[in-house]
Amino acid sequence: MLQQLKINNYALIDNLEITFNRGLNILTGETGAGKSIILGALSLILGQRAESRYFFNQQKKCIIEGTFHIGEFHIKAFFEDNDLDYAAETVLRREISADGKSRAFVNDTPVNLNTLKQLGERLIDIHSQHATLEINDAAFQLLVIDSVAKHPELLNEYQVTYRLFKTSSAKLKQLQDESGKAKSELDYHQFQYDELEKANLSEDEQEKLEQELYALNNAGDIKRNLLGAHYLMQEGETSALIQLRDAAHQLSALEKFNPQIQELNQRLNSTVIELRDIAAEIENMEQRTLINEERVAEINERLSLIYALQKKHRVNTNAELLQIQQELSDKIQQVLFGDEEIEELQQQINHQAEVLKKLAQQLSVNRTAAIPVIEKQVQQTLAEMGMANATLKIENTISAESNFDQNGIDHIRFLFSANKGYTLSEMSKVASGGELSRLMLSIKSLIASNTALPTIIFDEIDTGVSGEVANKVGQVMERLAENLQVITITHLPQIASKGDSHYFIYKDDSAATTYTRIKPLSNNERVVEIAKMLSGNNPGESALQNAKELLAGS
Prior knowledge:
The chain is an alpha/beta fold and 554 residues long. The protein is 56% helix and 16% strand. The protein has 18 helices and 15 strands. It has helices at residues 35-44, 76-81, 113-123, 138-149, 152-184, 186-199, 205-217, 219-235, 240-252, 259-288, 293-313, 318-384, 427-430, 433-448, 467-480, 493-496, 523-535, 541-552; strands at 2-10, 13-19, 24-28, 62-69, 89-96, 102-106, 109-111, 124-128, 391-398, 410-417, 425-426, 455-459, 486-489, 501-508, 515-520. The strands form three sheets. It has a six-stranded antiparallel sheet, covered by helices on one side. The chain has a six-stranded mixed sheet with strand order 8-12-13-3-14-15. Strand 5 (89-96) and strand 6 (102-106) form a beta hairpin. Helix 11 runs parallel beside helix 12 (318-384) and helix 17 (523-535) packs across helix 18 (541-552). The radius of gyration is 46 Å and the shape is elongated. The two termini are 23 Å apart. 29% of the residues are buried. It holds the Pfam family SMC_N. Belongs to the RecN family.
């Protein structure tokens, strides 16, 4: 229910605040007073696009804010899905700057325009004389059937199962595609895997082999230099060790003269021992250094294999080759064991399909039973509104049980004839704007008696009717308003008199600038307003009396 609407800086409205009530809310006023402007502003918080040229003051923002009571609409899941704060009283706000930049909010949380539109569609349904698209929409027609069939739990179970079925089916196709592709590439993957497995790679092997090959390729120089170093240290007549031993002998003769010389001699002897060990290690290393052409050839062959595999797979290290080997192994295993997963998923889908068939059959039975009820009640309501010869026929084409879709196996089509003797056809082809409006009013009143609907706004759908027919249209609106909030813009006194609340829209040109204003009418003011609607701006006593009688009879 729309509780309050605030409009700032939009068209002829500088600052306007309207508090609506439950039941039937009537909006009246002269042509051009601003009734359509109010609906235009309301459409902004329902997600419609805005143009800055409509703003009243180009130096200020346009702000539209609507407060809604949404407790009975069961749309908390929408708030959770869109990460919004849920509140029984929810505020939708739209701010538009003069340069056209727009921001939208739901309970002070910023949202995009699409989210605002989706929520707005759940809260308000604006219907004008020319808004015939909804009544011809297959989804809306099915909604009418389901509301009268009264099977929300069954429908919800079907839709939840259907979504799981579609998800499973999509996953099955993905697995089948992957399996088919993997099978077609199995031989190639197996060949590549066998090639890498046969190579028996280790992660640090390449670096070690390259170091060993470098040493083998330079074995001659290494051996020669090691021999030279050993000769200079130990074997030559003037080798380092011989000279150091002679130096130690000279110091030994001087130890008795100076204690410090003894300490130096001890250090020198330690150095001689260390150098003797180094010379021995150099000799051992020289003897171990061999020129081994066979080993060189063996290493070159191994490295050639490694380099070739790296080039083939476009990598630079053995670690990357080993990772590719593991990936190939996974792909091979997927082919070998993937069919088991596909088989299990197929069984699950088959079970879901069987459940869907049973649920769809029950939905179809319920819908079939609801169709004659809808046809009868809509025709009765149309007869009340002066369309006694109107006929509504609902066709239900039932698909084969295995051809279910998101709605089941039923395909609904509304056919209509406004006059006796005319062939039934789609409503948009055979009904005038006024006839469609009354038909929509009949259908909406039927839905409202069976399920919760958002606020309905009728924008002059009573055009083309008068007299007793207008009175009957008003009575239908009155009944409709027993179950939901109805806001209607009308020029007919018969309808205006049925309202629970009455608002008068007018232009205020008392200042230099003209503004659109709105005010709720008291009972006495309603009498005067309805009298004006009956006879003009200066109603006589008979018009006032007639207005009182219309209000008294409502």
